[in-house]
From TrEMBL, chains A, B, C, D:
SUPFAM superfamilies: Xylose isomerase-like. GO terms for biological process: L-lyxose metabolic process; rhamnose catabolic process. InterPro entries: L-rhamnose_isomerase, Rhamnose_iso-rel, Xyl_isomerase-like_sf. One of its GO terms (molecular function) is L-rhamnose isomerase activity. Keywords: Isomerase, Manganese, Metal-binding. This is L-rhamnose isomerase. The lineage of its organism: Bacteria, Bacillati, Actinomycetota, Actinomycetes, Glycomycetales.
Length: 387, 387, 387, 387
């Protein structure tokens, strides 16, 4: 197995994008619990996201969600982010919260509503330009709840048409990243349910169209690392939405539900050349329904880092030899050896050598930031999925 | 196979309880879409529920959810219901929407919060007495999102303690019906995840404690009709929460996702003596997120009735003979014959003979009621899960 | 809704291919139960398959599985089939029963074994030519049981290489049809786990490469009719392997587990132009572990026919109108109306008008054929998956 | 967190029972691959099992499966085991491989076949007495493949009757342990599908009836550690069948698929007093379809030991404090800290201090035992599920 010193430099190239919405309130259909200090506007979200980067060195960018993060002056928001040591990243569109979109957006039967959805994406592209970011990420809530409700086939054609219109509008340095999801909020069918559908559409669009893999968007039993390997092989893995789940799209902290799965995913990322490659954006997409949000994000980026270190430590050459020899248990042992290696102590040292706190969770707690924002952010409307 | 005339009288004994909350707004964590005419108080819900009964003859009672349906004078609400031709039924408690309950209610580590949850159930029992209904139904959202967050084992003991306290307070004609659910809103563990847990608790409580089976609360691949048969055999099936699902707890219209499963469930109900038996309450528990709510409820009770008719038509004697002969295909053919029989025409006649509209969906649409309430119910706060 | 008379002629175009192996013994890893009259060679399988066609008019071809159906003279087997009123169809390869293939076939690390697997497919192509059939169907058991055991990524490249070599060898009228499967016999990863992988490979091969969709090869909760619609849209649906399942790849009689799902699949087939289109082969792939095999096949083709009739009866125009109006319940009602229509009586008439028995199951039972083969087929080695 | 020295003594109390059948050939319905050196009789299985204990100190007993392990003189087999340093343990019955049992055993409609199944269990009880072991373990393959095939409800009554007859015959020091399984080999329903059913039956039988939890026998998404905690609380956890799975009952090496789940299970075992308690038998139930069998078993017991060490290291007091404080992230961190601790080095030392090889896998490979048995065990019938 590789030594930690062999991978220390490589770890510096890791960058994990934070979702602005993880700092706002979230919940389930049963209840959204509020929490003190929740940001009330995108500027306050930037401040919170910047804290995650300050304590970990891992999160140099924050993704936006439009309209949730709409501001009058995106240039000002960019500069504000820069002043706090981070940059703005991926722009996520949202076509699931207007009454118009109740039965679909890009796939709606009504051309007026389809146009509205296209226009919304044009706005997102403009924002991309203003903040100087690269990726437009599209997750569509489009789908149906009842068999017969919609024309599954025709909706695919409408989707292709809408995506093509949006893709054409992209700048030469922009990308369109299309996310897929098995179900929710639609319960019978979704219009982009699986990676195959996303792949078929991005192939039709062009080179700068990619697939976003959200780790919580698959059917039970799906081998996600296989999809990672396949999309890297096909040159179409655009980004990750990391989180973890036990049942559905639970949006828990990445690595919390099945750490070994996260390891296997990251091994395929490394194996397939996706680590620290500009092609692949590592993003979080999580909800901190009951736990504090900034520590939740710190824990998340640390989990990704710890597991990345384990994946980088994997002795790929010994693995190859065992695989070629048909040594099932031997190959598995090489693989597990990396997973079971406790990298936490060396990562603490690594951080200290780079001027970061050895224990970011403890350091953040000691910083008093949570108490400060709880005291400061009184009044106003706490940010959330509906705001 | 039995003839329709053989079962016509039996069909008259069917009674399906409607959930008051099905008439209010509902949705997913992504969005709750409003709809015109949504009731703003329990009285308006009664009016809507009564319409379902008026057009189908199938829904003589409406269940309450507290605090959503709290009124100053439950006697008045009961009389209002009676004036509209229905009665109030099961009282459902709710310990998932107060900030106190964020980490649990009856299973919370804090005795003050556990007491609060117990007190809430005492209030529900008082309401039961005032409206003269029988069942207190308890579904707990209690659970945890992260491994280690809670002490799974101790929470069972706290749960047993809380349920015992509530059970003691019940009147001699009341029952406690304990619902189970695999997941949501908790994502790592729930405190009553399966029928076995519910069964173990109600066994410890006493004879008047029963299990509620919600058809959407199981893991993928669960054979639900087996659980129905088992609970009837054990004398512990208290009620159904009918709905249908493709993935998780989708709360779609009963019979919409897998009509054959509904048939199999109803066959076991009939086989096990649960049909038209006072022991077993047939209740709906659904969300009409995108479809109109009153027609959604009418469609639902009709679905249950149609499938009940098919189950009653099953030639149990021919089935028994084929089963005993080990005739796999023959037994299956007898079974499928009942399922594939189109009972809709005869049910239309059956309704007309009883002074009901042949086509309740069309008759309701023609009645203009939806238009009336849309016009009348302007202003105020539409009922929903959060109100 | 359409009338039965409108669809009667269309039903004549239905042709369902039978798998030769459904007539042999099959079972689970726990036990293969034998049954009297099991065929001992491909000629006896042809006789049994021909019976299914004789009593239903629905099954004019029988697919082969090599090496299970290897004979000295395929011309003789073809003529024997023709003499019995059917033809030989799809040739299925088998690279999962030789010791060499324990760790893979086309994806094996050892080039010698990969070549052996390629050669096996060349043999299958020769057989295709000799019997004058079109499709080479490839289902690979390739995969791994333990994380790290194999190089998931490299195996994709080896697979692509092997498939390309096989594809080149195909005659101009032949097709390569690539099946996918989530799991089993491999338990950690399979090399063609989903339609997306199959699609990516057939796209790389060329126009005559298609996807085979086995209805039992998906993760729980997968919307199969969506995949049907998508593959038809992409022009890559080559064939169905019909069967049904409750849990895994149960290979039960098609329509037995979820008849409504079968209906939805067939609606998309009709909607997408796949019905009676030469592009799409309707094949069964089932195991009759405990029920008699020939009646099991008769029941299966009848189930497909009955559900096809319901799908053809669907009022697509009324459906379209309701869908465009956003009438969720109305569209669903149009859809369900077709599903709930009992077509069995009219299909019995339809059969009689065409010189077929009204009740093929009863007629076959009365024919005494099962008793005849049970008496005749004494001694020898009953056909099965291992023979 | 506890120190390793604190738990070293506790680790000595660990005993894991090996399944005799893990040393024989196994496979899937597609193929059983043979391997050199496979034992041909129970004596050779004992020799192999004893090797696992010799190199690990963890596996002092071997479970039998009847009729697979039937011998003329069980006393001789017991002495042979003792001579090799191990003892014979749990006796597993088998009512799934005789033609009579095709449609059921204890639940069959035919009283003659039910009696045969009961008699088989009487034989197992006699064997228990002869070998001086405690537990009769019953896993029933009983179930049906098609809806309507069997009377689900009546089969429960027959099952209860059969179990009662068997239970009565048990000696005063014997126990009946009833296993449950979601599906396979039956595909529509199984007669003991879940822990609730097993629990209801053992409650009806008496104090010495317990539940066996096989970690691979649940629906996707089932929280297994919850069931562990519940059964320990109810005093009815009799034994584990450890293995791991990605999809169905894959019977892979325990800990191979989801090590974190194994950790969570063992934490509940420790928390609930089940560790090193005579009440709870730790058993493996695995198939080594493609990997060598003895190393597969060594790897398995080591996996259980490593994860047990992590569970024992958990700082339960710190966990309790965090749980009571409602500190979600803090409690989770305490929990994960134990999981991520690399105990392998200290376990190697622990072994050496006790005269065991530091690296049992390497030591066994170096011992030449595999080569010896491959050379010796030529001819005869290799043991397998069908022999």
């Amino acid at each position: 197995m590789a030594q930690f010193t062999d991978i220390a430099a490589s770890l510096e190239r890791q960058a994990i994008e934070l979702p602005s919405w993880a700092f706002g309130n979230s919940g389930t259909r049963f209840k959204v619990f509020g929490s003190p200090g929740t940001p009330r506007d995108p500027f306050e979200k930037v401040r919170d996201a910047a804290k995650v980067h300050e304590f970990t060195g891992l999160a140099p960018t924050m993704a936006l969600h439009i309209p949730w993060d709409r501001v009058d002056d995106f240039g000002a928001l960019s500069r504000f982010a820069a002043d706090h040591g981070i940059a703005l990243g991926t722009v996520n569109s949202n076509t699931f919260q207007e009454a118009d979109y109740k039965l679909g957006s890009l796939t709606h039967t009504d051309p007026r509503i389809r146009q509205r959805a296209v226009d919304h994406h044009f706005e997102c592209i403009e924002i991309l330009e203003r903040i100087g970011a690269r990726d437009l990420k599209i997750w569509l809530a489009d789908g149906t709840n009842y068999p017969g409700q919609g024309d599954i086939r025709r909706r695919q054609d409408l989707l292709a048409e809408g995506l093509a219109t949006i893709y054409e509008r992209l700048g030469p340095d922009n990308r369109l990243v299309l996310e897929y999801k098995l179900f929710e909020p639609a319960f019978y069918h979704t219009d982009v349910p699986d990676w195959g559908t996303s792949y078929a559409h991005v192939m039709a669009l062009g080179e700068r169209a990619k697939v976003c893999l959200d780790t919580g968007h698959h059917a039970p039993g799906t081998n996600i690392e296989f999809i990672v390997a396949q999309l890297l092989r096909l040159g179409r893995l655009g980004s990750f939405d990391f989180n973890s789940r036990f049942y559905a799209d639970d949006d828990l902290i990445v690595g919390a539900a099945d750490p070994f799965q996260l390891f296997r995913i990251l091994v395929e990322v490394v194996r397939g050349g996706g680590y620290a490659h500009p092609e692949v954006t590592f993003m979080l997409d999580q909800c901190h329904n009951i736990e504090p949000k900034i520590p939740g994000q710190i824990r998340s980026v640390l989990n990704v880092q710890e597991m990345t270190a384990r994946a980088l430590l994997l002795d790929f050459e010994a693995l190859r030899v065992a695989q070629e020899a048909g040594d099932v248990l031997g190959a598995n042992a090489v693989f597990m050896d990396a997973f079971y290696t406790d990298v936490r102590g060396e990562l603490a040292d690594w951080r200290q050598e780079r001027g970061l706190p050895a224990d970011p969770m403890a350091a953040f707690a000691a910083s008093g930031y949570l108490e400060t924002i709880a005291a400061e952010r009184i009044g106003g409307q706490a940010a959330g999925w509906d705001a």
